[in-house]
Structure formats: structure tokens, C-alpha cells
Amino acid sequence: MDLHGARAPSRAGAVIARTPARPADVVTRQPYEVRIRGLIGPAARQAFAGFGVVVEPPVTVLAGDLDQVELHALLERVRALGLELIEIMRPSSGAAPGP
């Protein structure tokens, strides 16, 4: 099918459906908060440069607008540093937590 839903003939006369670009193919960024047990020190904070870091003892909250690839990379950093992941959430207001 072309972008208007029509089918395109193939060389052998068979009809081949073409798939138009889907909205799901568009990378979207969403606000996320990732909660980690404990307080993270200066070295760990450097690993999360570019994210909002808010300490709510006994939890540290990392916040930022992420697409799916960035979210998985963030979670991999949390794992690699041996930090305990408590929760991942998308705030409804879209605002990062404040101090």
C-alpha cells in the first residue's frame, strides 16, 4: 500500500502491501522519576549528570525526560553501580520533583 492505502503492483503482477510509517516509530520523551534506596555520593551523581537529583531520605530520586533507549541506559547505570532500584514512575504533571 502507498501512504494513501493503495496497493502497489509487484514486478510479477502480485500485490505487495507497503507499510506506512507508524506513529510508534517516532521517538517520544516522557518525564520519569527513578527512586533508588539510599543516598548517592558525588561519584555516583556524576554518573547521572543531566538528571535532576533530589534526596528524600532514605531515597534518592533521579528525574528527567527520557525516551525508551535512554530509560534503559539509565537503569543499566543504576545496576552497574550496584544501586537498589525501588521504583520507576511517570509523574502525571510532567514536572520534575523539586527540592
Please, could you describe this protein's structure?
The protein is α+β, with helices and mostly antiparallel strands. It has helices at 42-47, 68-80; strands spanning 8-9, 15-16, 30-37, 52-56, 59-66, 85-89. The protein has a domain at 26-89: Alpha-Beta Plaits (2-Layer Sandwich). It is built from two helices and six strands. The chain has a four-stranded antiparallel beta sheet, covered by helices on one side. The radius of gyration is 21 Å and the shape is globular.
Q: Care to give the gist of this entry?
A:
The chain is an alpha+beta fold and 99 residues long. The protein has two helices and six strands.
Topology:
Elements: E1 8-9, E2 15-16, E3 30-37, H1 42-47, E4 52-56, E5 59-66, H2 68-80, E6 85-89
Antiparallel strand pairs: 1-2, 3-5, 3-6, 4-5
Largest sheet: 4 strands, antiparallel
- Here the CATH topology of the domain at 26-89 equals Alpha-Beta Plaits
Q: Which word captures the global form?
A: globular
Proper CATH architecture of the domain at 26-89? 2-Layer Sandwich
Number of helices: 2
- Average predicted confidence as pLDDT: 81
Helical content, roughly? Answer: 10-25%
For the record, what is the CATH homologous superfamily label of the domain at 26-89? Answer: ACT-like. Chain A, domain 2
Low-pLDDT sequence parts: none
Portion in beta strands: 25-35%
According to DSSP, the number of beta strands is 6
The order of strands across the largest sheet is 4-5-3-6
- CATH level 1 name of the domain at 26-89: Alpha Beta
Topology order in helix (H) and strand (E) letters: EEEHEEHE
In angstroms, what separates the terminal alpha carbons? 53 Å
Radius of gyration: 21 Å
**Helix/strand class:** alpha+beta
